[in-house]
Each structure stands twice: as C-alpha cells, then as structure tokens.
Amino acid sequence: MENEMGSPDFEPTRRGLLAGAATATSFAAAGPAGAQGAGGSAAAAPAAGVPVLSKVSLMVNGQRRELELDTRTTLLDALREHLQLTGSKKGCDHGQCGACTVMVDGQRVLSCLTLAVMHEGDEVKTIEGLGQPDSLHPMQAAFVKHDGYQCGYCTPGQICSSVAMLEEIKAGVPSHVTADLTAAPQLTADEIRERMSGNICRCGAYSNIVDAITEVAGRQA
C-alpha cells in the first residue's frame, strides 16, 4: 500500500531498529580491520593496567637521584616509597592539609598533587634536608622551643612551608591580607596566619607555630 506521496508505507518496529543498529556497528568494526589488512598493521595500544615507566633525575637535598617511575607517581610517593624520605607525610592526599609540603626550587609545593616526572632536574628539599637532630635548622629549633607541635604529624610540612613563606615575604610577594600592595609586606601575625592557612594542625598548636615563625623572622631581619 502506498501513501499520498506515492511511497510505500513505512512503520519502524523496535526489532527492526535494533537489527539495523547491530548491522551498522558490525560494518563500523570491520572498516578499520579491512584497512589494516590492506595497508599494514596499526600500532598496538598499550595494554590496560600496564604502567608506563619514565626516567627522572632529581636533585634531592643536595644529592642527584636517578629514578625510573610509573609516570603516575606523585612527588610525595617518589620521596617516601622510592627514596625512603618519610619525613614528608601523606595526610589527605588531596592537597588540603599541607602535611606533604616540600620545597621545589625554593618554593613550597604540595607534593601529593604534583607528578615526579614533572620535576626533571629540579632541586627538591624535604624536612630531612633542612636539618638533622644534631644540626637543626633555626625553624626546627624554634618549633621545639615554642612547642609548635603535639603529635608531630603535620610538623614537617609546617616547617617547610614556614621557611619558604618567609622567603616569599622577603621577595615582596603579597597575600590576601596585605593592606598595601605597593609596599613591602610586613610580617604580622595576620600575615603569618594567612600565609600558613594551607597547613592544618589538628592538635591546634597554631599560636605556638606563629611564635616560632616570628622568632626566626626576627633573627633574619
């Protein structure tokens, strides 16, 4: 039977649509295979789940370290799991607590959020590189003096962050609470709290941390 336009009536059914879709899919799948057979084999994709390894060279605490890592390895895991520098802590693993803070080329970095392969040739300093028990960095000594810690889990990140933070102030880098952006930032308690706000202390030793940083800054002034 024909309709008014002279064409046969067409009433699609669910079964017919599914059959047509299956046929189209089979042709699409056969297309690349046919081209591959005619023009040579295509490059094989990496097998799912197989890690891609890459060599990376880091200057860690003054020593050149050569590593071959899964490209997905964070700087934190490279330090802790491959170089056994366990001072830097894995707290939230989301860049929210600051326990993993290290210094890369003098700037503080959340090592859980950056990949190790991104830092080829960079100079990385961890809490172990700042000082040792028999030769403490002034900031480490000030934290001890002012009891700037309780459980100590966040302390390596707090100290690395505070050392780099003082360098930021020296360089004239303003913060959210800097009143005059045209003048050199002043080291006030508000400036310290704002600049250290990315480092969480669950024990609540914040006032003592501010005292420790203030003392070290006074020596350096």
TrEMBL record:
Do you know which InterPro entries this protein is assigned to? 2Fe-2S-bd, 2Fe-2S-bd_dom_sf, 2Fe-2S_ferredoxin-like_sf, 2Fe-2S_ferredoxin-type, 2Fe2S_fd_BS, Aldehyde_Oxdr_Iron-Sulfur, Beta-grasp_dom_sf, TAT_signal
Which GO molecular function annotations are given, in alphabetical order?
2 iron, 2 sulfur cluster binding; carboxylate reductase activity; metal ion binding
> To which species is this protein native?
Muricoccus pecuniae
Pfam families on file: Fer2 (PF00111), Fer2_2 (PF01799)
Q: How does it assemble?
A: Heterotrimer composed of PaoA, PaoB and PaoC.
Job of this protein: Oxidizes aldehydes to the corresponding carboxylic acids with a preference for aromatic aldehydes. It might play a role in the detoxification of aldehydes to avoid cell damage.
Subcellular location as annotated: Periplasm
Q: What is its EC number?
A: 1.2.99.6
2Fe-2S ferredoxin-type domain location, by residue? 54-130
What are the UniProt keywords, alphabetically? 2Fe-2S, Iron, Iron-sulfur, Metal-binding, Oxidoreductase, Periplasm, Signal
Record protein name field: Aldehyde oxidoreductase iron-sulfur-binding subunit PaoA
* PANTHER family associated with the record: ALDEHYDE OXIDOREDUCTASE IRON-SULFUR-BINDING SUBUNIT PAOA, OXIDOREDUCTASE, IRON-SULPHUR BINDING SUBUNIT-RELATED-RELATED
Q: What is the lineage of its organism?
A: Bacteria, Pseudomonadati, Pseudomonadota, Alphaproteobacteria, Acetobacterales
Primary residence: periplasm
Among the entry's GO cellular component annotations, what is one? periplasmic space
Keyword Phosphoprotein appears in the UniProt entry: no
Reactions mediated catalytically: an aldehyde + A + H2O = a carboxylate + AH2 + H(+)
What is the uppermost EC class here?
oxidoreductase
